[in-house]
Structures are given as structure tokens and as C-alpha cells.
Write a structure and sequence with these properties.
heterodimer; A: about 150 residues; mainly alpha; B: about 140 residues; Globin-like; organic acid binding (chain B)
Chain lengths: ~150, ~140
């Protein structure tokens, strides 16, 4: 089981309490499609992903970004058993969606950068480390059921 | 592959960072050593407390080297030749760590630039820093 310090727990609750899921979700997911364009392979039915402007204006991208953040919320509320919390989602991403699990890491990096840009100097090195530890556990749990 | 616009964007961003090179550099190093503690193993000879004189100086060196390269990206192999030799024969830093520092440089830029560090700037910077790291590690083997 992952050990969380009080600081780490408080930091994660604090960040997710502060950010606007409707803003950060679409921003992070859209950013991922721009910065790592090969991730677009899973979204052939999303319509126009032709350039950064199109991606950021795309309503399906925005909707999916919100879905992803809401999914993350489950982990925020169950920090002591993220692995079990994501078991079903992991199976879904492996068996049905066939997503290369390395993509979870790419999206996590984009989320980190979006949160950094929203929080500015409040996103200190210690806060970043806690946030990245949390996302690393999420990423690992989502990849756990792949075989 | 960097477009002409991306190269200009990258040069502009680093130009702005030159006056605060020691801030940006030391912050990136601190972020890296906090999130990726294995990287501290390369700094056992330095005072790695945040914003120590040595971290400010070391951070400044790194940012200025990157800024220098950003002015003429197509000549990176030439500009970086002495640093390639240093990293390969003397420092021998596992090149995987270059990814960690690149990531933390990007986080630092995002924290400082806020929404100005938009996805297009981020993509360009990520490509540039990946290329920079690859060139830096070229003489390793």
C-alpha cells in the first residue's frame, strides 16, 4: 500500500479542491493532443484535431477532458486504495480501448504542467513532488490490469 | 522537427529568461531533486539547499547554455561540442536524467509564465529540450 505523508495528503486534497475541473480537464487533455500528437490515434472520431487551435476549440476534446478529471477524482477520494479503485478502468483501457499505458504518463505530465501554470509560485517543488507521486500511483494503477 | 515559427518562439522565451537565469535554473534543479531524488546523487559535492549560492550559480550556467543554443538551433552540434565532451568523459550523468531536468525546466517555465506557456509553446519547448538532451548525450558512446 502506498504510504502518504500528512503533507502529501493535504497537498492533493488542496490542489483538487482548488482547481476547476471544467477548466483543467480540457486544458490538460487538449495539451496532450498538441504536445504528443501521436496520442490522437485513439480519437479518430473526435473530428477536427488538425492543429492546436482546432484541438482547443473541439467540444469532444473538452468533454473528454472533463471525463478524465472526474475519473481522477475517484483516486483523490480513495488515496489509500487507488489500485482497487482503478481496477475496472484499467481493464477497460486495456481490453476495450487498447490504450498504450505509456499514454497515461504523457497525460499526467500535461496535467502537471497545467496545474503549475494555474498555481504559479504556489506550485512549489514540494507540492510538485507530492502531485507527481500521486499521479505516478494513478498511472501505475491504470496500467496494472494489462496483460 | 521544429518549424521556423517554433524556433523563433523558443528563442524568444529563453531570451526572456536570461536576466533571471539563476532563478529559473536553481528552481528547476530544486524541482528535479525533490521529485526525482535519485538525481541528488550527482550533487554530493555541492550545497543543494534551495537557492544556495552554488545552486544559483549552477542553475545559471545551465539556463545560459540552453539560451545560447536557442539562438541558433540548427548549429546545436557545434555550440554544444565542449559540453558534449564534458558530459561524456567527465560528468557521466546517466542521460535518462536529462529528461527529468527537461521536464522540471518546463514545469518552471509554466509556473512563471502561466497561461502564456500555452500548448503550442509547450510542444515547441518539449521538442527543443529533447533535441538538446539528445545532442548533449551524443558522445557518451
Amino acid at each position: 500500500m502506498v504510504q502518504w505523508t500528512d503533507f502529501e495528503r493535504a497537498t492533493i486534497q488542496n490542489i483538487f479542491g482548488k482547481i476547476d475541473y471544467e477548466d483543467v480537464g480540457p486544458a490538460a487533455f487538449g495539451r496532450c493532443l498538441v504536445v504528443y500528437p501521436w496520442t490522437q490515434r485513439y480519437f479518430g472520431n473526435f473530428g477536427n484535431l488538425y492543429n492546436a487551435a482546432a484541438i482547443q476549440a473541439n467540444p469532444m476534446v473538452a468533454a473528454h477532458g472533463k471525463t478524465v478529471l472526474r475519473g481522477l477524482d475517484k483516486a483523490v477520494k480513495n488515496m489509500d486504495d487507488i489500485k482497487a479503485t482503478y481496477a475496472e478502468l484499467s481493464v477497460l483501457h486495456s481490453e476495450k480501448l487498447h490504450v498504450d499505458p505509456d499514454n497515461f504518463r504523457l497525460l499526467a505530465d500535461c496535467l502537471t504542467i497545467v496545474v503549475a501554470s494555474r498555481m504559479g509560485s504556489d506550485f512549489t517543488a514540494d507540492v510538485q513532488a507530492a502531485f507527481q507521486k500521486f499521479l505516478a500511483v494513478v498511472v501505475s494503477s491504470l496500467g496494472r490490469q494489462y496483460h | 522537427m521544429l518549424s521556423k515559427e517554433e524556433k523563433e518562439l523558443i528563442a524568444q522565451i529563453w531570451e526572456k529568461m536570461i536576466p533571471i537565469a539563476s532563478e529559473i535554473g536553481s528552481e528547476s534543479l530544486h524541482r528535479m531533486m525533490t521529485t526525482f531524488p535519485g538525481t541528488k546523487t550527482y550533487f554530493s559535492h555541492l550545497d543543494i539547499r534551495p537557492r544556495s549560492r552554488q545552486m544559483l550559480s549552477h542553475g545559471k550556467k545551465i539556463v545560459l547554455a540552453i539560451a545560447e543554443c536557442s539562438k541558433d538551433i540548427s548549429s546545436m552540434m557545434v555550440t554544444l561540442a565542449p559540453l558534449q565532451t564534458l558530459h561524456a568523459y567527465k560528468l557521466k550523468i546517466d542521460p535518462y536524467n536529462l529528461k527529468y531536468l527537461s521536464h522540471c525546466l518546463i514545469v518552471t517555465l509554466a509556473a512563471h509564465m502561466g497561461s502564456d506557456f500555452d500548448p503550442v509553446a509547450h510542444a515547441a519547448m518539449d521538442k527543443f529540450l529533447s533535441a538538446f538532451a539528445a545532442v548533449l548525450a551524443e558522445k557518451y558512446r
